[in-house]
Amino acid sequence: MADWEHVLDALVRERGAALVRYAALLTGGTAEAEDLVQEALVRAFSQGRPLREAHAAEAYVRRAVLTVFLDGYRRRRRWSGVRHLLAGAETTDGPEDASAARADVHAALATLRPRLRACVVLRYYDDLTVPEIAGRLGLSDGTVKRYLSDAIHALEGALGPLPVARTLDVTLLPTGRTR
């Protein structure tokens, strides 16, 4: 083992718990403190500085702990100032909202006449084009367009205004499938 390896081993064995307690005072938590000490040790012993005695190495690592903590704080503070420009909402709808919407759509679909329901399902669930739907159902393209229009109006009556007909894509998909 090289000199620095002996110093690192002795430092972690003898003073590791004290370093973590020191870092915990800064971070407020043990898990974050352990990560902070690990980062400080890596920085201190990968710099190529000759750390040959444990007392000097501990002082250097304590200083590195403080530096890493302050750098992280500055980074987090800077990020919080611009995060709103880049990131979307930090909360997402729970599965309850999607389940309720899916149940509403299924109930609304049940009110449609069979051909209208078939057109909507083929269009928004199977993602078929109007000519493909017409071919499957043996109808003209115009009839399929009319059925889709009538179905959307009927669904809007049951579900409320649909901003875009493609809104049905999400609510009709089975669990776990996305577009």
From TrEMBL:
<dbReference type="Pfam" id="PF08281">
    <property type="entry name" value="Sigma70_r4_2"/>
</dbReference>
<dbReference type="InterPro" id="IPR013325">
    <property type="entry name" value="RNA_pol_sigma_r2"/>
</dbReference>
<dbReference type="InterPro" id="IPR036388">
    <property type="entry name" value="WH-like_DNA-bd_sf"/>
</dbReference>
<keyword id="KW-0805">Transcription regulation</keyword>
<feature type="domain" description="RNA polymerase sigma-70 region 2">
    <location>
        <begin position="11"/>
        <end position="78"/>
    </location>
</feature>
<dbReference type="GO" id="GO:0003677">
    <property type="term" value="F:DNA binding"/>
</dbReference>
<feature type="domain" description="RNA polymerase sigma factor 70 region 4 type 2">
    <location>
        <begin position="104"/>
        <end position="151"/>
    </location>
</feature>
<dbReference type="InterPro" id="IPR039425">
    <property type="entry name" value="RNA_pol_sigma-70-like"/>
</dbReference>
<keyword id="KW-0731">Sigma factor</keyword>
<dbReference type="InterPro" id="IPR013324">
    <property type="entry name" value="RNA_pol_sigma_r3/r4-like"/>
</dbReference>
<dbReference type="InterPro" id="IPR014284">
    <property type="entry name" value="RNA_pol_sigma-70_dom"/>
</dbReference>
<dbReference type="Pfam" id="PF04542">
    <property type="entry name" value="Sigma70_r2"/>
</dbReference>
<dbReference type="InterPro" id="IPR013249">
    <property type="entry name" value="RNA_pol_sigma70_r4_t2"/>
</dbReference>
<dbReference type="GO" id="GO:0016987">
    <property type="term" value="F:sigma factor activity"/>
</dbReference>
<keyword id="KW-0238">DNA-binding</keyword>
<comment type="similarity">
    <text>Belongs to the sigma-70 factor family. ECF subfamily.</text>
</comment>
<keyword id="KW-0804">Transcription</keyword>
<dbReference type="InterPro" id="IPR007627">
    <property type="entry name" value="RNA_pol_sigma70_r2"/>
</dbReference>
<protein>
    <recommendedName>
        <fullName>RNA polymerase subunit sigma-24</fullName>
    </recommendedName>
</protein>
<dbReference type="GO" id="GO:0006352">
    <property type="term" value="P:DNA-templated transcription initiation"/>
</dbReference>
